[in-house]
Write a structure and sequence with these properties.
four-stranded antiparallel beta sheet, 4 strands, HATPase_C_sf, serine/threonine-protein kinase
């Protein structure tokens, strides 16, 4: 199940580049949550869902603040979690997070968002697009509670 060409749910604010409503962090979180609920039938561990929602928020917010806006958003359930891809209009990659503890005072580059993504996500891939911009894709593990729903 791949969620390409996602139309933002109600609550998205402001016009996007094509005149369509722009994707907001809130709309992206709601969509990611609905994909997890559909795939794992509400049996996903809540701490994993919280991590997913934090990472989705940070990636979408970073695209809005630093990437010239969200050019695309995809969620793809996979065997061990959910892959999230956020496309933006900037060729600039996030700053590398130095050291084993990216949150330590005095060692941060920029804000708290990217170090949070690095800490919570797996398989982080940054691809520059031939037409300009980039895609940041991450895997967020989703474990189940073991209870049917």
């Amino acid at each position: 199940m791949r969620e390409e060409g996602l139309a933002p749910p109600r609550g998205a604010v402001g016009p996007g580049p094509s005149g369509a409503p722009a994707l907001t962090a809130s709309a992206a979180r709601a969509h990611a949550r609905s994909v997890v609920d559909a795939r794992w039938n509400r049996a996903a561990r809540e701490e994993d869902v919280i991590d997913l929602l934090l990472v989705v928020s940070e990636l979408v917010t970073n695209a809005l603040r630093h990437g010239g806006g969200v050019a695309g958003f995809e969620t793809t359930p996979v065997t061990d979690g959910i892959r999230v891809s956020v496309h933006d209009h900037s060729d600039e990659a996030p700053a590398v997070v130095p050291g084993p503890d990216p949150g330590r005072a005095g060692h941060r580059v920029g804000g708290y968002g990217w170090p949070l993504v690095v800490r919570l996500a797996r398989e982080i891939v940054i691809d520059r697009l031939p037409t300009g911009g980039k895609t940041i894709s991450v895997l967020l593990p989703i474990r189940t509670t073991g209870r049917p729903d």
